[in-house]
Amino acid sequence: MTSPLASDFLARIENRQAVIGIIGLGYVGLPLAIAIGRANFRVVGFDIDSRRVEALNRGDGLIKHIPNQPIADAIAAGRFEATADFTRLSEPDAILICVPTPLTRQREPDMSFVLKSTASVAATLRRGQLVILESSTWPGTTEELMKPMLEGGGLRSGEDFFLAFSPEREDPGNPVYGTQNIPKVVGGDGADALALAARLYDAFVSQTVPVSSPAAAEAVKLTENIFRSVNIALVNELKVIFEAMGIDVWEIIDAAKTKPFGYMPFYPGPGLGGHCIPIDPFYLTWKAREFDVTTRFIELAGQINTAMPRYVVDRLAEALDRRFRRGLNGARILILGVAYKKNVDDTRESASFKLIEILEERGAVADFHDPHVAVIPATREHAALAGRRSVSLTGENLVGYDAVLIATDHDGLDYAMVARDARLILDTRNACAKAGADMTKVVKA
Fold this sequence. Notes:
Structural class: alpha/beta
CATH superfamily of the largest domain: NAD(P)-binding Rossmann-like Domain
Number of domains: 2
CATH class of the largest domain: Alpha Beta
Low-confidence stretches: none
Helix content: 25-40%
Number of strands: 13
Largest sheet: 8 strands, mixed
Order of helices and strands: HEHEHHEEHEHEEHEHHHHEHEHEHEHE
Strand content: 5-15%
Oligomer: single chain
Radius of gyration: 24 Å
Number of helices: 15
Protein backbone atom coordinates (compact mmCIF):
# COMPACT_ATOMS: atom_id res chain seq x y z
CA MET A 1 0.00 0.00 0.00
CA THR A 2 1.36 3.42 -0.93
CA SER A 3 -0.93 5.56 1.27
CA PRO A 4 -2.06 5.46 4.91
CA LEU A 5 -5.68 5.67 3.67
CA ALA A 6 -5.25 2.49 1.63
CA SER A 7 -3.43 0.73 4.47
CA ASP A 8 -6.25 1.60 6.87
CA PHE A 9 -8.83 0.22 4.42
CA LEU A 10 -6.85 -2.99 4.02
CA ALA A 11 -6.76 -3.44 7.79
CA ARG A 12 -10.54 -3.01 7.98
CA ILE A 13 -10.95 -5.74 5.37
CA GLU A 14 -8.60 -8.10 7.15
CA ASN A 15 -10.28 -7.73 10.56
CA ARG A 16 -13.78 -7.74 9.04
CA GLN A 17 -14.60 -4.27 10.34
CA ALA A 18 -15.28 -2.94 6.84
CA VAL A 19 -18.97 -2.34 6.07
CA ILE A 20 -19.96 -3.25 2.53
CA GLY A 21 -22.74 -1.46 0.66
CA ILE A 22 -24.47 -2.95 -2.37
CA ILE A 23 -26.65 -0.87 -4.70
CA GLY A 24 -29.19 -3.08 -6.46
CA LEU A 25 -30.49 -6.20 -4.70
CA GLY A 26 -31.60 -8.28 -7.66
CA TYR A 27 -30.15 -11.29 -9.46
CA VAL A 28 -26.57 -9.99 -9.03
CA GLY A 29 -26.62 -7.90 -5.87
CA LEU A 30 -28.51 -10.33 -3.64
CA PRO A 31 -26.19 -13.35 -4.15
CA LEU A 32 -23.28 -10.97 -3.63
CA ALA A 33 -24.76 -9.74 -0.35
CA ILE A 34 -25.22 -13.31 0.86
CA ALA A 35 -21.65 -14.29 -0.04
CA ILE A 36 -20.16 -11.21 1.64
CA GLY A 37 -22.27 -11.74 4.75
CA ARG A 38 -21.06 -15.33 4.98
CA ALA A 39 -17.50 -13.95 5.07
CA ASN A 40 -18.45 -12.10 8.29
CA PHE A 41 -18.76 -8.62 6.84
CA ARG A 42 -21.71 -6.38 7.65
CA VAL A 43 -23.69 -5.60 4.48
CA VAL A 44 -26.06 -2.70 3.86
CA GLY A 45 -28.10 -3.23 0.71
CA PHE A 46 -29.64 -0.32 -1.19
CA ASP A 47 -32.57 -0.59 -3.57
CA ILE A 48 -35.08 1.88 -5.01
CA ASP A 49 -37.87 -0.71 -4.76
CA SER A 50 -39.38 -0.26 -1.29
CA ARG A 51 -41.39 -3.48 -1.69
CA ARG A 52 -38.18 -5.44 -2.24
CA VAL A 53 -36.50 -3.71 0.70
CA GLU A 54 -39.40 -4.58 3.04
CA ALA A 55 -39.42 -8.20 1.83
CA LEU A 56 -35.66 -8.59 2.26
CA ASN A 57 -35.79 -7.26 5.80
CA ARG A 58 -38.37 -9.98 6.48
CA GLY A 59 -35.97 -12.55 5.04
CA ASP A 60 -37.74 -12.96 1.68
CA GLY A 61 -35.55 -12.38 -1.39
CA LEU A 62 -38.46 -12.64 -3.87
CA ILE A 63 -36.22 -14.64 -6.28
CA LYS A 64 -37.15 -18.31 -6.44
CA HIS A 65 -33.74 -19.79 -7.20
CA ILE A 66 -32.10 -17.87 -4.32
CA PRO A 67 -33.04 -19.56 -1.00
CA ASN A 68 -34.40 -17.34 1.78
CA GLN A 69 -32.63 -19.09 4.66
CA PRO A 70 -29.21 -17.47 4.07
CA ILE A 71 -30.90 -14.06 4.03
CA ALA A 72 -32.70 -14.77 7.29
CA ASP A 73 -29.47 -16.09 8.82
CA ALA A 74 -27.57 -12.93 7.85
CA ILE A 75 -30.30 -10.71 9.29
CA ALA A 76 -30.37 -12.71 12.53
CA ALA A 77 -26.59 -12.41 12.83
CA GLY A 78 -26.74 -8.64 12.26
CA ARG A 79 -24.79 -8.94 9.02
CA PHE A 80 -27.44 -7.72 6.57
CA GLU A 81 -30.06 -5.04 6.26
CA ALA A 82 -31.76 -3.48 3.25
CA THR A 83 -32.74 0.16 2.86
CA ALA A 84 -34.18 2.57 0.31
CA ASP A 85 -32.46 5.50 2.05
CA PHE A 86 -29.57 6.40 -0.24
CA THR A 87 -28.39 9.15 2.12
CA ARG A 88 -26.88 6.27 4.12
CA LEU A 89 -24.30 5.62 1.39
CA SER A 90 -21.70 7.35 3.55
CA GLU A 91 -21.87 4.43 6.01
CA PRO A 92 -20.23 1.65 3.95
CA ASP A 93 -16.48 1.50 3.47
CA ALA A 94 -16.94 -0.17 0.07
CA ILE A 95 -19.86 0.38 -2.31
CA LEU A 96 -20.58 -2.21 -5.01
CA ILE A 97 -22.93 -1.02 -7.78
CA CYS A 98 -25.03 -3.81 -9.31
CA VAL A 99 -27.71 -2.06 -11.37
CA PRO A 100 -29.16 -2.82 -14.82
CA THR A 101 -27.55 -1.55 -18.01
CA PRO A 102 -30.25 -2.13 -20.65
CA LEU A 103 -30.51 -0.88 -24.21
CA THR A 104 -32.74 1.89 -25.52
CA ARG A 105 -35.21 1.19 -28.33
CA GLN A 106 -32.47 2.43 -30.68
CA ARG A 107 -30.15 -0.31 -29.30
CA GLU A 108 -27.87 2.19 -27.62
CA PRO A 109 -26.63 1.94 -23.99
CA ASP A 110 -29.09 3.12 -21.37
CA MET A 111 -26.81 4.28 -18.57
CA SER A 112 -29.55 5.92 -16.50
CA PHE A 113 -29.31 3.41 -13.63
CA VAL A 114 -25.52 3.71 -13.42
CA LEU A 115 -25.71 7.51 -13.61
CA LYS A 116 -28.34 7.75 -10.87
CA SER A 117 -26.41 5.36 -8.64
CA THR A 118 -23.15 7.24 -9.19
CA ALA A 119 -24.87 10.54 -8.43
CA SER A 120 -26.19 9.08 -5.17
CA VAL A 121 -22.70 7.89 -4.21
CA ALA A 122 -21.15 11.23 -5.17
CA ALA A 123 -23.63 13.08 -2.93
CA THR A 124 -22.34 11.26 0.18
CA LEU A 125 -18.80 10.25 -0.85
CA ARG A 126 -16.25 10.46 1.94
CA ARG A 127 -12.51 9.95 2.18
CA GLY A 128 -11.37 6.33 2.23
CA GLN A 129 -14.33 4.75 0.46
CA LEU A 130 -13.90 2.14 -2.27
CA VAL A 131 -16.43 2.29 -5.13
CA ILE A 132 -16.74 -0.69 -7.50
CA LEU A 133 -19.01 -0.94 -10.52
CA GLU A 134 -20.16 -4.49 -11.36
CA SER A 135 -22.73 -3.70 -14.06
CA SER A 136 -21.86 -4.83 -17.60
CA THR A 137 -20.93 -1.83 -19.72
CA TRP A 138 -18.69 -0.40 -22.43
CA PRO A 139 -14.93 -0.09 -21.88
CA GLY A 140 -14.26 3.31 -20.37
CA THR A 141 -17.42 3.71 -18.30
CA THR A 142 -15.72 3.61 -14.90
CA GLU A 143 -13.01 6.14 -15.73
CA GLU A 144 -14.79 8.32 -18.31
CA LEU A 145 -18.30 8.45 -16.88
CA MET A 146 -18.18 7.64 -13.18
CA LYS A 147 -14.84 9.10 -12.14
CA PRO A 148 -15.61 12.73 -13.12
CA MET A 149 -18.96 12.54 -11.31
CA LEU A 150 -17.37 11.15 -8.16
CA GLU A 151 -14.58 13.74 -8.27
CA GLY A 152 -17.09 16.57 -8.69
CA GLY A 153 -17.11 17.28 -4.95
CA GLY A 154 -13.36 17.79 -4.75
CA LEU A 155 -12.17 14.35 -3.67
CA ARG A 156 -9.69 12.65 -5.99
CA SER A 157 -9.62 9.02 -7.10
CA GLY A 158 -6.50 7.25 -5.89
CA GLU A 159 -5.84 9.92 -3.27
CA ASP A 160 -9.07 10.41 -1.32
CA PHE A 161 -11.17 7.47 -2.49
CA PHE A 162 -10.65 4.36 -4.61
CA LEU A 163 -12.43 3.31 -7.80
CA ALA A 164 -12.57 -0.08 -9.57
CA PHE A 165 -14.55 -2.26 -11.93
CA SER A 166 -15.28 -5.97 -11.43
CA PRO A 167 -17.80 -7.53 -13.83
CA GLU A 168 -20.56 -9.71 -12.42
CA ARG A 169 -20.49 -13.30 -13.67
CA GLU A 170 -23.71 -14.62 -12.17
CA ASP A 171 -25.46 -17.53 -13.89
CA PRO A 172 -28.93 -17.73 -12.30
CA GLY A 173 -29.93 -21.24 -11.35
CA ASN A 174 -26.51 -22.79 -12.03
CA PRO A 175 -26.22 -25.66 -9.50
CA VAL A 176 -22.40 -25.83 -9.75
CA TYR A 177 -21.10 -22.26 -10.04
CA GLY A 178 -22.20 -19.42 -7.77
CA THR A 179 -20.79 -16.17 -6.47
CA GLN A 180 -18.20 -17.75 -4.19
CA ASN A 181 -16.57 -20.17 -6.65
CA ILE A 182 -16.60 -18.03 -9.81
CA PRO A 183 -13.29 -16.16 -10.24
CA LYS A 184 -13.56 -12.37 -10.10
CA VAL A 185 -11.84 -10.16 -12.68
CA VAL A 186 -10.79 -6.83 -11.15
CA GLY A 187 -9.43 -3.63 -12.68
CA GLY A 188 -8.59 -0.58 -10.54
CA ASP A 189 -8.04 3.11 -11.15
CA GLY A 190 -4.50 2.95 -9.84
CA ALA A 191 -2.46 0.38 -7.97
CA ASP A 192 -4.07 0.99 -4.57
CA ALA A 193 -7.61 0.68 -5.93
CA LEU A 194 -6.71 -2.58 -7.65
CA ALA A 195 -5.05 -4.00 -4.54
CA LEU A 196 -7.93 -3.06 -2.26
CA ALA A 197 -10.67 -4.32 -4.58
CA ALA A 198 -8.82 -7.60 -5.14
CA ARG A 199 -8.28 -8.05 -1.40
CA LEU A 200 -11.96 -7.41 -0.71
CA TYR A 201 -13.06 -10.04 -3.23
CA ASP A 202 -10.36 -12.43 -1.99
CA ALA A 203 -12.24 -12.48 1.30
CA PHE A 204 -15.30 -14.21 -0.19
CA VAL A 205 -14.53 -15.62 -3.68
CA SER A 206 -12.26 -18.47 -4.70
CA GLN A 207 -9.95 -16.45 -6.95
CA THR A 208 -9.37 -12.91 -8.14
CA VAL A 209 -7.92 -12.12 -11.55
CA PRO A 210 -6.33 -8.65 -11.65
CA VAL A 211 -6.11 -6.82 -14.98
CA SER A 212 -4.40 -3.59 -15.94
CA SER A 213 -7.31 -1.15 -15.77
CA PRO A 214 -11.07 -0.78 -15.29
CA ALA A 215 -11.42 -0.58 -19.09
CA ALA A 216 -9.67 -3.94 -19.45
CA ALA A 217 -12.04 -5.50 -16.90
CA GLU A 218 -15.02 -3.98 -18.73
CA ALA A 219 -13.71 -5.44 -21.99
CA VAL A 220 -13.36 -8.89 -20.40
CA LYS A 221 -17.06 -8.99 -19.58
CA LEU A 222 -18.09 -7.95 -23.09
CA THR A 223 -15.70 -10.48 -24.61
CA GLU A 224 -17.25 -13.32 -22.60
CA ASN A 225 -20.78 -12.48 -23.68
CA ILE A 226 -19.91 -11.66 -27.30
CA PHE A 227 -18.24 -15.07 -27.50
CA ARG A 228 -21.51 -16.70 -26.47
CA SER A 229 -23.63 -14.48 -28.71
CA VAL A 230 -21.55 -15.22 -31.80
CA ASN A 231 -21.45 -18.96 -31.19
CA ILE A 232 -25.18 -19.15 -30.49
CA ALA A 233 -25.79 -17.21 -33.70
CA LEU A 234 -23.61 -19.68 -35.58
CA VAL A 235 -25.52 -22.70 -34.30
CA ASN A 236 -28.85 -20.94 -34.93
CA GLU A 237 -27.81 -20.41 -38.54
CA LEU A 238 -26.68 -24.04 -38.79
CA LYS A 239 -30.09 -25.06 -37.45
CA VAL A 240 -31.82 -23.19 -40.29
CA ILE A 241 -29.48 -24.70 -42.89
CA PHE A 242 -29.69 -28.24 -41.59
CA GLU A 243 -33.48 -28.12 -41.20
CA ALA A 244 -33.74 -27.17 -44.89
CA MET A 245 -31.64 -30.27 -45.63
CA GLY A 246 -33.70 -32.54 -43.39
CA ILE A 247 -30.86 -32.92 -40.89
CA ASP A 248 -31.40 -32.77 -37.11
CA VAL A 249 -29.03 -30.11 -35.74
CA TRP A 250 -29.29 -31.62 -32.23
CA GLU A 251 -27.95 -34.94 -33.50
CA ILE A 252 -25.09 -33.11 -35.19
CA ILE A 253 -24.15 -31.21 -32.04
CA ASP A 254 -24.26 -34.34 -29.88
CA ALA A 255 -21.95 -36.13 -32.27
CA ALA A 256 -19.60 -33.16 -32.75
CA LYS A 257 -19.09 -32.63 -29.02
CA THR A 258 -17.51 -36.08 -28.69
CA LYS A 259 -14.37 -34.53 -30.20
CA PRO A 260 -12.12 -33.89 -27.19
CA PHE A 261 -10.46 -30.77 -28.65
CA GLY A 262 -11.22 -27.92 -31.02
CA TYR A 263 -14.98 -27.92 -30.45
CA MET A 264 -17.30 -26.55 -27.78
CA PRO A 265 -21.05 -27.25 -27.93
CA PHE A 266 -23.51 -24.38 -28.18
CA TYR A 267 -27.22 -24.93 -28.66
CA PRO A 268 -29.91 -23.25 -30.77
CA GLY A 269 -33.08 -21.75 -29.36
CA PRO A 270 -36.05 -19.48 -30.04
CA GLY A 271 -33.99 -16.33 -29.47
CA LEU A 272 -31.61 -14.92 -26.86
CA GLY A 273 -32.69 -14.07 -23.34
CA GLY A 274 -31.25 -12.87 -20.06
CA HIS A 275 -29.70 -9.54 -19.25
CA CYS A 276 -26.23 -10.15 -20.71
CA ILE A 277 -26.01 -11.92 -24.05
CA PRO A 278 -28.76 -10.05 -25.96
CA ILE A 279 -27.48 -6.68 -24.70
CA ASP A 280 -23.76 -6.55 -23.94
CA PRO A 281 -22.48 -6.98 -27.52
CA PHE A 282 -24.26 -3.77 -28.53
CA TYR A 283 -22.41 -1.84 -25.83
CA LEU A 284 -19.19 -2.59 -27.69
CA THR A 285 -20.60 -1.84 -31.14
CA TRP A 286 -21.82 1.51 -29.82
CA LYS A 287 -18.46 2.39 -28.26
CA ALA A 288 -16.54 1.21 -31.35
CA ARG A 289 -18.17 3.94 -33.45
CA GLU A 290 -16.23 6.51 -31.42
CA PHE A 291 -13.06 5.00 -32.91
CA ASP A 292 -14.43 4.65 -36.46
CA VAL A 293 -14.33 0.86 -36.14
CA THR A 294 -17.08 -1.29 -37.64
CA THR A 295 -18.27 -4.38 -35.79
CA ARG A 296 -19.77 -6.40 -38.62
CA PHE A 297 -19.25 -9.82 -37.08
CA ILE A 298 -20.88 -8.87 -33.77
CA GLU A 299 -23.78 -7.11 -35.46
CA LEU A 300 -24.37 -10.02 -37.83
CA ALA A 301 -24.62 -12.36 -34.84
CA GLY A 302 -27.14 -10.00 -33.30
CA GLN A 303 -29.21 -9.97 -36.50
CA ILE A 304 -29.29 -13.77 -36.65
CA ASN A 305 -30.26 -14.16 -33.00
CA THR A 306 -32.95 -11.47 -33.05
CA ALA A 307 -34.47 -13.07 -36.16
CA MET A 308 -35.04 -16.40 -34.40
CA PRO A 309 -38.47 -15.67 -32.85
CA ARG A 310 -39.95 -14.87 -36.27
CA TYR A 311 -38.29 -17.94 -37.77
CA VAL A 312 -39.84 -20.10 -35.03
CA VAL A 313 -43.29 -18.64 -35.61
CA ASP A 314 -42.93 -19.23 -39.36
CA ARG A 315 -42.04 -22.85 -38.65
CA LEU A 316 -45.11 -23.16 -36.43
CA ALA A 317 -47.31 -21.72 -39.18
CA GLU A 318 -45.90 -24.23 -41.66
CA ALA A 319 -46.48 -27.11 -39.23
CA LEU A 320 -50.10 -26.06 -38.64
CA ASP A 321 -50.71 -25.84 -42.37
CA ARG A 322 -49.21 -29.29 -43.02
CA ARG A 323 -50.98 -31.03 -40.12
CA PHE A 324 -54.38 -29.31 -40.07
CA ARG A 325 -54.58 -27.22 -43.25
CA ARG A 326 -55.01 -24.06 -41.23
CA GLY A 327 -53.00 -20.92 -40.49
CA LEU A 328 -52.09 -19.03 -37.34
CA ASN A 329 -55.04 -16.66 -37.57
CA GLY A 330 -57.49 -17.83 -34.90
CA ALA A 331 -55.23 -20.66 -33.70
CA ARG A 332 -54.82 -21.27 -29.97
CA ILE A 333 -51.16 -21.67 -29.00
CA LEU A 334 -49.71 -22.63 -25.62
CA ILE A 335 -46.17 -21.41 -24.92
CA LEU A 336 -44.25 -23.65 -22.52
CA GLY A 337 -41.89 -21.43 -20.57
CA VAL A 338 -41.54 -17.65 -20.36
CA ALA A 339 -38.38 -17.62 -18.22
CA TYR A 340 -35.36 -16.95 -20.42
CA LYS A 341 -33.65 -20.17 -19.26
CA LYS A 342 -34.72 -23.33 -17.55
CA ASN A 343 -35.38 -23.79 -13.83
CA VAL A 344 -35.42 -20.08 -12.89
CA ASP A 345 -38.05 -17.35 -12.65
CA ASP A 346 -35.90 -14.82 -14.52
CA THR A 347 -37.80 -13.37 -17.50
CA ARG A 348 -35.38 -10.61 -18.48
CA GLU A 349 -35.22 -10.21 -22.26
CA SER A 350 -37.07 -13.52 -22.65
CA ALA A 351 -37.64 -14.57 -26.26
CA SER A 352 -41.02 -15.95 -25.17
CA PHE A 353 -42.41 -12.43 -24.88
CA LYS A 354 -41.47 -11.73 -28.49
CA LEU A 355 -42.98 -15.06 -29.54
CA ILE A 356 -46.29 -14.16 -27.88
CA GLU A 357 -46.35 -10.75 -29.54
CA ILE A 358 -45.58 -12.14 -33.00
CA LEU A 359 -48.21 -14.86 -32.63
CA GLU A 360 -50.83 -12.34 -31.63
CA GLU A 361 -49.82 -9.99 -34.46
CA ARG A 362 -50.66 -12.87 -36.78
CA GLY A 363 -54.07 -13.44 -35.22
CA ALA A 364 -53.32 -16.31 -32.84
CA VAL A 365 -54.41 -16.57 -29.22
CA ALA A 366 -51.32 -17.20 -27.07
CA ASP A 367 -51.36 -18.50 -23.49
CA PHE A 368 -48.40 -19.71 -21.45
CA HIS A 369 -47.49 -22.22 -18.76
CA ASP A 370 -44.40 -21.78 -16.60
CA PRO A 371 -43.92 -23.55 -13.25
CA HIS A 372 -41.56 -20.79 -12.12
CA VAL A 373 -43.44 -17.71 -13.39
CA ALA A 374 -47.03 -17.41 -12.20
CA VAL A 375 -47.56 -13.91 -13.59
CA ILE A 376 -45.68 -12.01 -16.31
CA PRO A 377 -44.01 -9.03 -14.62
CA ALA A 378 -44.04 -5.47 -15.92
CA THR A 379 -41.30 -4.76 -18.47
CA ARG A 380 -40.41 -1.74 -20.56
CA GLU A 381 -40.37 -3.57 -23.88
CA HIS A 382 -43.45 -5.78 -23.41
CA ALA A 383 -45.72 -3.73 -21.16
CA ALA A 384 -48.93 -5.11 -22.69
CA LEU A 385 -48.10 -8.63 -21.45
CA ALA A 386 -47.80 -7.66 -17.78
CA GLY A 387 -50.25 -9.43 -15.51
CA ARG A 388 -50.93 -12.43 -17.71
CA ARG A 389 -51.12 -15.63 -15.69
CA SER A 390 -49.74 -19.09 -16.26
CA VAL A 391 -52.39 -21.66 -17.17
CA SER A 392 -52.46 -25.19 -15.80
CA LEU A 393 -50.59 -27.86 -17.73
CA THR A 394 -53.07 -30.73 -17.87
CA GLY A 395 -54.12 -33.18 -20.54
CA GLU A 396 -57.58 -31.64 -20.51
CA ASN A 397 -56.16 -28.17 -21.17
CA LEU A 398 -53.73 -29.37 -23.83
CA VAL A 399 -56.41 -30.73 -26.13
CA GLY A 400 -57.90 -27.24 -26.32
CA TYR A 401 -54.83 -25.83 -28.07
CA ASP A 402 -53.94 -26.20 -31.72
CA ALA A 403 -50.26 -26.38 -30.85
CA VAL A 404 -47.77 -26.24 -27.98
CA LEU A 405 -44.58 -24.24 -28.51
CA ILE A 406 -41.77 -25.30 -26.16
CA ALA A 407 -39.68 -22.17 -25.59
CA THR A 408 -38.01 -23.03 -22.25
CA ASP A 409 -37.04 -26.58 -21.32
CA HIS A 410 -37.72 -26.50 -17.57
CA ASP A 411 -36.90 -29.71 -15.74
CA GLY A 412 -39.80 -31.43 -14.05
CA LEU A 413 -42.38 -30.82 -16.76
CA ASP A 414 -44.25 -33.91 -17.95
CA TYR A 415 -43.07 -33.91 -21.57
CA ALA A 416 -44.46 -37.42 -22.08
CA MET A 417 -47.92 -36.12 -21.20
CA VAL A 418 -47.45 -33.10 -23.47
CA ALA A 419 -46.37 -35.37 -26.34
CA ARG A 420 -49.37 -37.62 -25.73
CA ASP A 421 -52.15 -35.05 -25.34
CA ALA A 422 -51.07 -32.05 -27.42
CA ARG A 423 -52.30 -31.93 -30.99
CA LEU A 424 -48.98 -30.55 -32.29
CA ILE A 425 -45.69 -29.59 -30.63
CA LEU A 426 -43.06 -27.20 -31.90
CA ASP A 427 -39.96 -27.91 -29.82
CA THR A 428 -37.19 -25.27 -29.90
CA ARG A 429 -35.15 -26.93 -27.13
CA ASN A 430 -35.18 -30.63 -28.09
CA ALA A 431 -36.94 -31.16 -24.75
CA CYS A 432 -39.23 -33.97 -25.90
CA ALA A 433 -36.43 -36.01 -27.45
CA LYS A 434 -34.23 -35.57 -24.35
CA ALA A 435 -37.14 -36.75 -22.19
CA GLY A 436 -37.66 -39.82 -24.36
CA ALA A 437 -41.19 -38.74 -25.25
CA ASP A 438 -43.18 -39.93 -28.25
CA MET A 439 -42.03 -37.79 -31.20
CA THR A 440 -44.98 -38.49 -33.50
CA LYS A 441 -46.48 -35.02 -33.10
CA VAL A 442 -43.23 -33.13 -32.48
CA VAL A 443 -41.65 -30.71 -34.95
CA LYS A 444 -38.21 -29.35 -34.04
CA ALA A 445 -37.42 -25.70 -34.71
